[in-house]
Design a protein that fits this description.
The chain has about 500 residues and is of the alpha/beta class. It contains 18 helices and 12 strands. Bound molecules: adenosine-5'-triphosphate and magnesium ion.
Length: about 500
């Protein structure tokens, strides 16, 4: 199913539904109860954008979106469902295909590490990340200003920790210049910082910092690269997850030029488990989110929120989500019923669709769909069977991931952290007493890191030992074709064999 300048979303009694690329930066919403088809819908949309040359960023919360990187496997149990759906909606050109994927991981385990500096993150988001109260946030602000005035760079958490110790040691002098700096408050912030570090937040701060251009790549066949953030482990720290994605949005907003209206977006950003962004966020932050979402569309970025319950999205933000795909909702509890009523209200009515009753009856992979039309108004709501993805449903094998990673167009740029001269090192050469303390904290942390790394290495070795070697051969066969296709135009088969040889050869 093809139409110039639009993505095929699905089809129903109202005919095929098309998402216009020139309205795709007017944002969107994918909502529905658990198991109703949100992730599969997202997967199909991501494929569509990629095929249209639009880069995509998405967070893979359950690991099941990584399958985008591989074609659907005809002998897999889910395949029949996909082909049945394709037939039902008259998608005659349905065939397995992968999307070009780049894997990312805040922790650097399942993809390229993503880093930013403490300064870039800024005090507002950091305060949220550490769960600071207003007084603490005020002192954190002072630490940032003092670092700036002292000409000290805040790159990683060591820098911030050293700077905070410096603030405590010079509390009186700093209070006179910037306002009250209580030592106890500094101590409380430092403890939160340690907790953040213990959650793995430390690896996110430092250099080389992410270049946004790496999220906006197009491959040699003109397909938009799909950046897949491994978020399964990240979801254990919901606040880190939400703050990170918000930081990313604001980076995009700050770095990208105005483009006004264009024929297609520069990037589409899918925000899964979107309710986490808003859960107990302070008012100042909510305002910032609302503002970024409102303004970022003129930079050519479309933001799609994915959530179980549409009422989790604040009204000011929800009002800006023009393209809507609402999967089934349950109507058990009063809160559910409220969600059903709210969802029904937001659609442009269609006399032939009773939204409130349809919404609880929709099948899996079926949704109420309303998309922005050429004049910018929403289309009347239609019951729609969503198109099946052409890529695999479900996760990748570690070896498949390893192969895709080894082919990443980003290369090795981000692989190693670089620690250049910054606040921690500067205070150290000054011989500040602060630094003795910071050095002690660092040594403690390193010992802890070494212990965790040791444990992980042992566990990994154990898993490897238990692996059935013939399974490995099967996997090699399975991934072989997909990878060869990915590199077909660029790389000779010999190199493919070389890559597979080095990954699988020495065992
Ligand atoms: N468009 C579709 N075509 C065919 N099958 C589908 C479609 N959408 C969903 N399914 C089937 O329904 C299953 C559940 O869908 P999915 O994982 O997308 O649900 P979900 O809403 O993301 O659930 P959760 O909230 O638990 O993450 C899929 O594994 C697939 O088998
Ligand atoms: Mg899902």
């Amino acid at each position: 199913m093809k139409q110039e300048g639009a993505l095929f979303v699905g089809s129903g009694p109202g005919g095929p539904q098309w998402l216009r690329l020139d309205r795709a930066n007017r944002h969107g919403l994918i909502a529905g109860a658990t198991g109703t088809g949100k992730t599969v819908t997202l997967q199909g949309l991501a494929e569509g954008f990629s095929a249209a040359g639009v880069p995509v960023f998405l967070a893979d919360v359950k690991g099941d979106l990584a399958g985008l990187a591989m074609p659907a496997t005809p002998n897999a149990p889910y395949y029949e469902k996909l082909t049945a759906r394709a037939a039902e909606i008259g998608m005659a050109d349905y065939a397995p295909a992968e999307a070009p994927a780049i894997f990312w991981d805040l922790f650097g385990e399942q993809g390229h590490p993503i880093r930013t500096t403490v300064t870039e993150m800024g005090p507002l988001l950091l305060a949220r990340l550490m769960g600071l109260n207003e007084t603490q946030e005020g002192v954190l602000n002072i630490a940032f200003r003092a670092a700036d005035d002292e000409g000290m760079l805040l790159l990683n958490l060591d820098d911030l920790q050293a700077m905070l110790t410096f603030c405590a040691d010079h509390a009186d002098a700093l209070s006179a210049t910037y306002g009250n700096v209580a030592r106890a408050t500094v101590g409380a912030i430092q403890r939160q910082l340690l907790a953040l570090d213990a959650q793995g937040g430390g690896s996110f701060f430092g250099e080389p910092a992410l270049q946004i251009a790496d999220f906006m790549r197009v491959d040699e066949q003109g397909r938009g690269q799909v950046s897949i953030l491994a978020a399964d482990k990240l979801m254990a720290s919901p606040r880190l997850y939400a703050t990170f994605l918000l930081w990313l949005l604001s980076e995009l907003f700050e770095d990208l030029p105005e483009v006004g209206d264009s024929d297609k977006p520069k990037l589409v950003f899918f925000f899964d488990e979107a309710h986490l962004l808003f859960d107990d966020a302070p008012k100042a932050l909510l305002e910032k989110i609302e503002q970024v979402v409102r303004l970022i569309r003129s930079k050519g970025v479309g933001v799609y929120f994915v959530t179980q319950n549409p009422i989790d999205i604040p009204d000011d933000v929800a009002a800006q989500l023009g393209n809507r795909i609402q999967h089934a909702l349950r109507a058990f509890t009063p809160r559910d019923q409220k969600a059903v009523a709210a969802a029904a209200e937001t659609f442009r009515p269609n006399p032939s669709v009773d939204v409130a009753s349809a919404i609880t009856e929709l099948r899996t992979g079926e949704a109420l769909v309303s998309l922005l039309q050429e004049d910018g108004s929403p289309s009347p709501v239609e019951r729609t069977l969503i198109r099946p993805p052409a890529s695999r449903l479900g996760p990748l094998e570690p070896k498949e991931r390893a192969i895709i990673r080894s082919l990443s167009p980003v290369g090795t740029l981000y692989d190693e952290a670089v620690d250049r001269e910054s606040a921690y090192e500067m205070l150290k050469t000054r011989g500040e007493q602060a630094v003795a303390e910071a050095a002690r904290i660092k040594a403690e942390k390193n010992a802890e890191k070494a212990r965790i790394a040791q444990e992980k290495a042992e566990a990994a070795a154990e898993r490897e030992r238990r692996r059935n070697p013939s399974l490995q051969d099967q996997m090699l066969n399975q991934v072989g074709r997909a990878v060869q296709r990915q590199v077909a135009n660029k790389v000779a088969g010999q190199i493919v064999r070389g890559i597979l040889g080095s990954l699988f050869g020495r065992r």
